[in-house]
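CO-FOLDING WORKSHEET

Operator: S.A.
Ligand of interest: zinc ion
Run index: 237
Mode: holo prediction, single chain
Checklist:
[x] sequence pasted
[x] SMILES validated
[ ] output reviewed
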Amino acid sequence: MFFLMANVAIFIASVMLCWILGVVFKRRRIFDRWQKMESLEIGAALASIGLNALVSIAGWWLWKLEFIEIDVNSPGLALFHCLAMTLFMDLGMYAFHRVAHSPLIYRWIHSFHHRHETTNPISLFVLHPVEVAGFGGLMISYLLLFPVDYHGLLAYLTINVLWGTLGHSGVEPMPAIMARIPVLRWVGTSTFHAEHHEHPRYNFGFYTLLWDKLFGTLDPDYERRFRQEEPSWPHLG
Ligand SMILES: [Zn+2]
Ligand SMILES: [Zn+2]
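OUTPUT RECEIVED:
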């Protein structure tokens, strides 16, 4: 019950943050309007919350059995653990996401998330159950392989919800100057994931642009879109 309540709270916080971002940054909209919410999608979002709770219970059970090691005495390593987990998960999710776009898997599983060509506050949770379980499985695999610091794990989980919310908020809160700052220019932005919903052959990463840059799948138009600049080519007619 605790894990179910925690996941309901995460859902409510994410939806509210999306709404607040939409109001505060309404001048930096990526899409003209939010995707219409359908009852099937609300049902899918509720199923995702339930499945996320089950994944949390599985993690807790594996921790109780000491298959997962969570250290509370090394907060000095929190930043390292958070970065390591973020990069590992980003690479794993990039790989899964590319596989999810192969024709057969896309048709039966991932196309459900891509019902949203633009996004809305529940898009983050409009996922096929197989995808929710796959993400949970990847996270649990990481925790089985590597001991983590508790604070680093909490920081990663916060980043996960924040970036998922940002990527589906339909506005761009990050300042355009970020594209010119070393390291920060490789951080995943709202525009980055929004573009994936528009053009599903680009931008498969989540928290960073690194793997898309490395494997040649970054939208060539990304930087211009992120800065919200007009195309540089002349308009004909
Ligand atoms: Zn999405
Ligand atoms: Zn996709």
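REVIEW:
DSSP finds nine helices and two strands in the chain.
The radius of gyration is 18 Å.
[x] output reviewed
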